[in-house]
């Protein structure tokens, strides 16, 4: 059978690891051709100094059933982004899905310190990595995307609008970064609507990224052991879950109903019926409101 995204062209900006990698893979599993970008290659690492590479991501996309194309891009470099989009235009003549997942600022964050105790250089670098990269990428990519009706932009962040509105994110710069990403989807939704395209802000729940697994001293095979460090870790989810959320949005002919919305992977799973790799549908943000926020004992029963 033809896969739902066969013939579709996607750009996942920030696809080296974590959510970005699996968004690329799950789009590939649905049949898409995916340009996977990032700064870490087999020849050179970014300042994060992690082992995951964009070449690995592209190979995973192809193995999943799509076509993966790795392109080394620093999304703060306007010329690199412009050349990337020109290449996609030359090779494909269209762009159907843009995923802005660029981040890479975790080591820069100073947690639980007031603004007057925050290191400004690191803070402003955080905002550049989290916000400027997304704007630069959209600036160059959207003229290609709007050539055809039905294009989709996904701004990937951390926390829905409702969650971020009500919760202090433990750092003024992190807080601003994540609020801004959601707002970018809202503004782009208004700009894209006249062109028959859609923009959505999307967040995973508690993401079991490569770095998060290392932080908890576990692997994907024994991830539940991480609950010894934080009992609520039992509500975490694989990056494939948010990847399947993006694939579901991209395959939905009625995706415009989400235009300008801020949604989470758990909520979309209830609508589209996809699951995490273990067959469950973790709904972290409902769990946060009903269990974590009121201080109840950790228990994932009824939330997966």
From TrEMBL:
Gene3D superfamilies: NAD(P)-binding Rossmann-like Domain. SUPFAM superfamilies: NAD(P)-binding Rossmann-fold domains. Pfam families: adh_short (PF00106). It comes from the Bacteria. InterPro entries: NAD(P)-bd_dom_sf (IPR036291), SDR_fam (IPR002347). This is SDR family oxidoreductase.
